[in-house]
Amino acid sequence: MIAAAGLFLAGLSTSALAVVASLILVNVGISAAKPPLWSMPTMFLTGPAAATGIAAINSIGNLGGFFGPAMIGWLKQQTGDYAAGLYFVGALLCMSAMITLLVARSLGRQQAPALH
What we know:
mainly alpha; 5 helices; 87% helix
């Protein structure tokens, strides 16, 4: 969510200093999200399934590395401004944070000890 906030702020920024500060926020948010992301598959998958889950995350991430910048460029061509592309990627980050939260809560309920 920190990275998404940074992207939204970058889209709203009017000075170079504000854009740089916003993009630093994006970098901090993305960097902080990586360790939990890579540990999640092993929370509910084991053996070959864990390897498959990690490979799927890597593949989707690589696709995102292509489509994210492409969408930012396409939206800039359509609107004449980078803000729409930054908002789009920020919205995707918000969506991924919500999905992660839902998965974590679902796993927490499944692993909660029964009260007697």
